[in-house]
Design a protein that fits this description.
By secondary structure, the protein is an alpha+beta fold. It has helices at residues 9-19, 36-64, 79-90, 109-122, 124-143, 146-157, 289-325, 343-375, 379-414, 425-432, 442-455, 461-477, 483-505, 508-545, 562-581, 583-594, 598-601, and strands spanning 67-69, 74-76, 161-166, 182-185, 191-201, 210-219, 229-235, 237-239, 245-248, 251-256, 267-272, 279-282. The strands form 3 sheets. Strands 4-5-12-7-6 form a 5-stranded mixed barrel. The longest helix is centred in the last third of the chain and has 38 residues, at 508-545.
Length: 613
């Protein structure tokens, strides 16, 4: 663990070992071989590779971007990524979370997500190739037959072969059921795939020897809509029965997008079957495509939420470093001559810190309960899965909405220099914007939370799992955190209970019109609950370290003891969020109650000043 410009490594360890007790997972068979020392070594290596290999490549790759050759239909990624990927794969990070039986390390999801944060903070463009490959690997592992597992898994787990997720088509963005790509049965049990997919991240590149596409298509004759979709494995290069590579499959890249950010991530248009000879293999059962693909889609939504955290963390860390070194104007404190001595800069940094820390806690909370759901087949495991399902849209939408705001605030800390390409934060802002659009726009996430996870859940099992977690946090906070702060959280939960009852009595159109507001309220509430948990732990630590520490007191030894400084920072971060930012929650709740159909009355004719379509 060392200072770096990407991730607060001390805070990562606080979340992993003090909040969620990662080591306690060793009581379960899959994780019994792992201890604190092992996890520390993984984190240290992730930090080292991210800082030494990936981070320096990020700016260079952004300036170079990817190169598309229309004659060969190939995409070349920046050379700096190839060396970084080589080191990443050799260190075994590609298979970190994959089972040992498949050639991976079999580590917990929580460990994987924490390690991945370093790489995402170093470069989103670089790490997108990895997350998509891991998602595709999981689909083969879960739904592939034995032959498919034998042919594909080892090379995917080691990072020799990459993977993609191919859903989007020109007419089928959020409306997945409108997919037109067809699959035609062949006598030998394979399928001929024909169609076009757009916005396919990693769709074509020279980082991998082969690319294994996960393709949603409709078998000829199957019904329209999502119920008629099947999932297919379509390799870029066909694979012989002995595992060696054969001929190029009939799938080509016809172009790449020229984007605002993540310029070194290849966003491709893929054409399948231009010569009527694109061979695909059914993955799972026919017409189970959307159900099977949801495994990768939900994982991808958590990936994108983690991407929001990574880029926000990097922007915040750079802003702190800059604020500590930049001299400008006379500050109010002789001990802080740099701009961090200005109260408004402190406010900006504390706002960023409180949100980045909450984002990190939320990702870890989800990952921890993914692990619990995998190792327990009882009611505890079932409740853990319910909580995961509830939190994923909050994490994906909340983290990515915030990443745009946090990276913008980092630019603001830098002032005019932040807007210039010589400094890294303007790239973080450009890279972050796609995240609220990726893997289902945040509006879609809000609808999923409101309609599927709450209103369509008659027993409210997911929401009840959420409230049970909150109750545990509140119980632990009693007699440690001031009652007025605890009461804010308990009152907020009661407000949400009442609001959900109101929404349940309204029609679908109303629920859809306030879904994003509800998701935003849940993000604030969730972050508040997590900060309450964090504050509870930090106060207890300060009491043992700083001799009789009490809330709202500056602890003794603050300037001399880095651990005291860390825990005091956790208290202030939580205090700022729970007493300042948390006030926005009630405003959103009241806004939802006040919405009396004004959105639905806003027909297209009122949006004036443009030509009619």
């Amino acid at each position: 663990m060392r200072p770096n410009l990407l991730v607060d490594s001390r805070d990562v360890r606080f979340v992993l070992f003090e909040m969620f007790d990662l080591v306690s997972l060793s009581e379960y068979e899959p994780y019994k071989e792992f201890d604190r020392q092992t996890y520390e070594a993984v984190l240290d290596l992730a930090e080292q590779i991210a800082m030494e290999e990936v981070y320096p490549a990020n700016t260079i790759a952004d300036k170079q971007g990817v190169t598309f050759n229309p004659d060969t239909h190939t995409v070349t990624v920046p050379e700096v990524f190839k060396q970084a990927m080589k080191v990443f794969n050799e260190a075994g990070f590609t298979g970190l979370v994959q089972p040992i039986s498949c050639g991976g390390m079999g580590m917990p999801e929580m460990m994987y997500r924490s390690a991945l944060e370093y790489f995402l903070a170093a470069s989103i463009s670089f790490t997108i190739y990895i997350t998509l490959s891991n998602g595709a690997t999981n689909l083969v592992r879960i739904f592939g037959n034995e032959e498919q597992k034998q042919l594909y898994l080892q090379n995917m787990v080691t990072g020799r072969w990459g993977g993609t997720m191919c859903l989007t088509e020109p007419q089928a963005g959020s409306d997945v059921g409108a997919i037109k790509t067809k699959a035609y049965r062949q006598p030998d049990g394979t399928y001929k795939i024909k169609g076009q997919k757009i916005f396919i991240s990693s769709g074509e590149n020279d980082l991998y020897e082969n690319i294994i596409h996960m393709v949603l298509a409709r078998i000829d004759g199957d019904p329209e809509g999502t119920k008629g979709l099947s999932l297919f494995l379509v390799p870029k290069i066909l694979v012989h029965s002995d595992g060696s590579l054969g001929n190029r499959n009939d799938v080509i890249c016809t172009g790449v997008e020229h984007k605002m950010g993540i310029k070194a991530s290849a966003t491709c248009t893929l054409s399948f079957g231009d010569n009527d000879n694109c061979i695909g293999y059914i993955l799972g059962k026919e017409r189970d495509g959307i159900k099977n693909m949801f495994h990768m889609m939900n994982e991808a939504r958590l990936d994108v939420g983690l991407e929001g955290l990574g880029v926000s963390s990097a922007a915040y860390m750079h802003a702190v470093q800059y604020a500590k070194s930049r001299i400008q104007g006379k500050t109010i404190s002789k001990n802080e001559p740099s701009i961090i001595g200005h109260p408004d800069v402190k406010r900006m940094l504390l706002w960023m810190k409180s949100h980045v820390e909450a984002m990190r806690m939320l990702v870890a909370l989800i990952a921890y309960h993914i692990d619990i759901s995998r190792v327990r087949n009882d009611e505890i495991g079932k409740k853990a899965q319910a909580l995961v399902e509830f939190l994923i849209p909050i994490c994906k939408a909340g983290n990515t909405d915030l990443s745009w705001l946090i990276t913008a605030e980092a630019v603001q800390v830098y002032g005019g220099y932040g807007y210039c390409g010589e400094y890294p934060v303007e790239q973080y802002a450009r890279d972050s914007k796609i995240l609220s659009i990726y893997e289902g726009t945040n509006g879609i996430q809000s609808i999923d939370l409101t309609m599927r996870k709450i209103l369509s859940d008659e027993k409210r099992e997911r929401y009840n799992a959420y409230k049970d977690y909150a109750s545990d946090v509140i119980k632990k906070a009693r007699a440690i955190v001031p009652e007025n702060i605890i009461n804010q959280v308990t009152i907020a939960i009661a407000e949400m209970d009442s609001l959900i009852d109101v929404l349940a009595a309204k029609d679908t159109a109303f629920a859809l019109s306030v879904a994003t507001m509800l998701q935003q309220a849940f993000r604030i509430l969730t972050h508040g609950i997590l900060h309450l948990n964090s504050m509870t732990i930090a106060i207890q630590k300060l009491q043992s370290l700083a001799g009789g520490y009490t809330y709202n007191q500056v602890p003794e030894g603050l300037e001399d003891n880095s651990e005291i400084a860390f825990y005091y920072g956790k208290v202030l971060s939580a205090q700022f969020f729970l007493t300042v930012e948390f006030e926005k929650y009630s405003g959103i709740i009241q806004g939802i109650r006040n919405e009396n159909g004004v959105v639905l009355r806003a027909g297209s004719s009122i949006f004036t000043g443009v030509l009619e379509a």
